[in-house]
Amino acid sequence: MNPNKVIRENVRQLTDLPNIGKASAADLVLLGITYPQQLIGRDPFQMYQELCVITQQRHDPCVIDVFIAITRFMAGEPPRVWWDFTEERKKILSQARVC
Known about the structure:
There is one protein chain. By secondary structure, this protein is an all-alpha fold. It is 44% helix and 0% strand. The protein has one domain. The longest helix has 13 residues, at 62-74. The protein is globular.
């Protein structure tokens, strides 16, 4: 969902989360996440690694940005577009290899 349209109180299903459509929701389900509350305390980089292992393919690193956006949102931060986290992800990945 477009982050500008997300109303925290109305978030009940995965597609209610900022930046999450059907495809991303399906990826979350592969990770065993079926409700937004299950994202609380999750590590977006670990989620990405798990997704790569489960699907046996390397996903676009922008998936990490989406995972950062939704885990931060569920931790109480305001909804933000996924690309707000690209520079942060690149900096972290330059220090450690993921997938």
